[in-house]
């Protein structure tokens, strides 16, 4: 499968960048040149990232293997993807680990044999005990030649959902998502929650219903799930497939069997929806970068040309220069408002995100404590612990998505502060997975209860202790009436008091067990809150620095553009006639090129609805 004929107009965009760079170099604008070259690298990057996600044991890895017809992911009843695996095209197969190499986030790559990719690479000897962050694989699959890069993720379900936030963190800079759910049952509540959150971050995606060969009622399940998606307002199509039939079809070269597996539907989705980049945030940002640079250069060249063409400028220069200085100072003062908007906004976001996390954890704690109060935790602790871990993981995921949305909104607000000063074409930076991803591997599970269910022997012993006292006490009183120590009255009293003692002991033991269960729960929530709170604060600080650096560079560029425009005006007034004519022609040529660049950008924006943003 190859990519269609350049619907993004990459060649046109690259040409516009090159023209703008050439003029920026003539004006000695190294800052704009560097920015445009970064934009050029981004637009020509052929990689199109597709994240494969889903709960545990749904067939994600088998789907990827069957799709590529290569064993690039671990499969089996007892096997699962344990670290993020990135698969891209290469003529010769290779594999390497990306490991943590320093305390400040430095990474290093370590080559591993391709035959080892089906083992647990977290313990690979080549890593030398360092944490394995991800696995990168080069595979000679024709499907990858068009630029597709598949990212296989660990399951987002299971014990405490430890990979939930990390998987969500991969979605901001993904071009598409394949959500995998087998056809054994309809969507669970955790799956529906994940689908809603994931679709908010990455709107281009499809749900792959796997293992249709194992479940004869898969059509009913698919229809039911489609209704769930419609009610949840998640416009994602469902493609039912069989990885087993696909593998047989490839090995037998059977086209009919391949059609029955329905894998061609996935390939069609990738070809028509993903390779065409229907949602192309990178392209939009690059166009914004070009527009911003072109407009700044237009201001500089236009100001100089006006000064060169006006022979009376020498007489008006002093007054006009003072006026333009004041205008520049006013404009720069207006753009400086972005710092106040950013700092105030970041403080609000940080406080709101922290408060939101605390509120969610408090609600989870209260809900689980009500569950503990309604049962004997010694009998149901496994279920209570699993519910607590899943609820906490869901709360963390909700908080993560909300933090991402608030951060993106803050970036837009800062960009608007530039627009309010009359400085358009200021783009918000992309908040990618490198900024948003989290690592919660150090989280612990809910501690086990020391209290155990009361056995039959303990129940009998509690009853005997109470009944013994009752028999002795009533028997001694009844001996005054000439009855023996053991008589019907004393035995009856012993049975009654024994039953009361057993109930009191049972209630006391239940209260102790519930208190211990609540203590374990609160300790677990406190530990999670400590780790997640630190991760959240660090993530927001990183985002703050990213936004600060991004807009500081823009402010510096604008300041330099205004100052150089003033300097060009001053210099132009002292040009000789011959030099002035030459300079006029040169400036007119530059303005003509810049005008064509801006006109092409408008045309490219008009073309965007043809392939961007369709559901």
Task: Please give a quick description of this structure.
This protein has 615 residues and is of the alpha/beta class. The chain has 17 helices and 9 strands.
Structure description:
The chain folds into 2 domains: 45-261, P-loop containing nucleotide triphosphate hydrolases (Rossmann fold); 283-445 and 478-484 and 507-601, no CATH class. Helices cover 62% and strands 9% of the residues. The chain has helices spanning 10-26, 30-44, 60-68, 164-170, 189-201, 218-232, 243-252, 255-261, 263-274, 281-309, 313-335, 337-373, 377-420, 433-436, 456-479, 488-572, 577-607; strands at 48-54, 84-89, 94-100, 107-112, 132-139, 148-152, 176-182, 205-210, 238-240. Strands 4-3-5-2-6-1-7-8-9 form a 9-stranded mixed beta sheet, with helices on both faces. Strand 7, helix 5 (189-201) and strand 8 form a beta-alpha-beta unit. It is globular and about 130 Å long.
Report the order of strands and helices.
Answer: HHEHEEEEEHEHEHEHHHHHHHHHHH
Q: Report the principal-axis shape.
A: globular
SSE-based structural type: alpha/beta
Q: Proportion of β residues?
A: 5-15%
Radius of gyration: 34 Å
Q: Could you estimate the helical fraction of the residues in percent?
A: 55-70%
> Segments where pLDDT lies below 50 for 5+ residues?
157-162, 433-442, 609-615
Mean pLDDT value = 75
